[in-house]
Automatic annotation (TrEMBL):
Residues 1-21 form the signal peptide. It comes from Monodelphis domestica (Gray short-tailed opossum). SUPFAM superfamilies: Immunoglobulin. This is Ig-like domain-containing protein. The keyword Repeat applies. Pfam families: ig, Ig_2. It is found in: Cell membrane. One of its GO terms (cellular component) is plasma membrane. GO terms for biological process: cell surface receptor signaling pathway. Gene3D superfamilies: Immunoglobulins (2.60.40.10). Residues 26-118, 124-192 form the Ig-like domain.
C-alpha cells in the first residue's frame, strides 16, 4: 500500500467515525536529536512524542510548495523516531507530526520544526570590528562577508541561530553587520552562514569560528601614576 493510499484509508475511517478533524488528542512535540542544523550527508533523527499511547504516526514536510506527507509508522507507544539517514537539500524545510489512537482519532499537529541543511555552498567570512577583544561597556560589530551573491546571512552563537540580516553589496562583496549583546566576563564563539531568501533552510558551510573575548576595561590611571613629560 502506498503512502497516499494509507493516508486516504485512515482519513476515511476517521471521517466515518466522526473524529476528523476534531483533533481531540493533545499535540505531540517534535524535535531533532542532536541539532536542527544538519550538515549535508549527515544523518538526523526526528523524534515525535505524544502524551497518549498511539498506534499510527505521521510526519509531514513543507519545503516551500505546501505540506506533503513524508513518513508514516504504525507502532504502539507514546514516542516514535523518524530517521533521515543522509540529508540533502531536499530534506531542508519545516516539519510537523501527529499521531492517532483507534478510539479517539488524530491528535493536533505538533509545533513546526525548522530543519536547516548546511554545507551546501562555500562559507562566508566573519570578522569582529574594531576588535574581537571587547571591554565591558563597549560595543562590537560582527561583519559577515562573501563574494557569493547571498542575499541573507545568519549569525549563530554556540551553534544556535541568534540573528539573520539581509545583505548589501560593497564592491564585489556581499556583507551584513550584526550587533550582538556582549556579556561581561563571558567569552562567546560565533559563526555565520550565507543563504538565499527563496531557500531559507538551505545554508552554506559555516564561517571559521570567531571567539569574542570580553572583560573589564582598564581603569583610568590614578594621579600618582601619571607621568609628565619634561622634554
Amino acid at each position: 500500500m502506498s503512502l497516499s493510499q494509507w493516508f486516504c484509508l485512515v482519513c476515511s475511517s476517521a471521517v466515518l467515525s466522526g473524529v476528523w478533524p476534531l483533533y481531540r488528542l493533545p499535540r505531540p512535540s517534535l524535535r531533532a536529536e542532536s541539532d536542527s542544523l544538519v550538515p549535508q550527508g549527515r544523518a538526523v533523527i526526528l523524534r515525535c512524542r505524544g502524551s497518549w499511547e498511539a498506534e499510527d504516526w505521521w510526519l509531514e514536510k513543507n519545503g516551500g510548495s505546501g505540506w506533503l506527507p513524508i513518513k508514516t509508522v504504525r507502532k504502539t507507544g507514546n514516542e516514535i523516531e523518524f530517521s533521515l539517514p543522509s540529508v540533502t537539500s531536499n530534506d531542508a524545510g519545516t516539519y510537523r507530526c501527529l499521531y492517532r489512537h483507534s478510539s479517539y482519532g488524530w491528535s493536533e499537529l505538533s509545533d513546526p520544526l525548522e530543519l536547516v541543511v548546511t554545507d551546501l555552498s562555500a562559507p562566508p567570512s566573519l570578522a569582529a570590528l574594531p576588535s574581537s577583544e571587547v571591554a565591558e561597556g563597549q560595543n562590537v560589530t560582527l561583519q559577515c562577508r562573501s563574494e557569493l551573491n547571498y542575499d541573507m546571512f545568519a549569525l549563530c552563537k554556540y551553534g544556535e541561530e541568534i540573528s539573520r540580516r539581509r545583505t548589501w553589496s560593497h564592491g564585489r562583496m556581499y556583507q551584513a553587520d550584526f550587533f550582538p549583546a556582549v556579556t561581561p566576563t563571558h567569552n562567546s564563539t560565533y559563526r555565520c552562514f550565507g543563504f538565499h531568501s527563496s531557500f531559507p533552510n538551505e545554508w552554506s558551510s559555516p564561517s571559521a569560528p570567531l571567539l569574542v573575548v570580553t572583560g573589564k576595561a582598564d581603569p583610568p590611571p590614578r594621579l600618582g601614576q601619571l607621568r609628565v613629560s619634561t622634554a
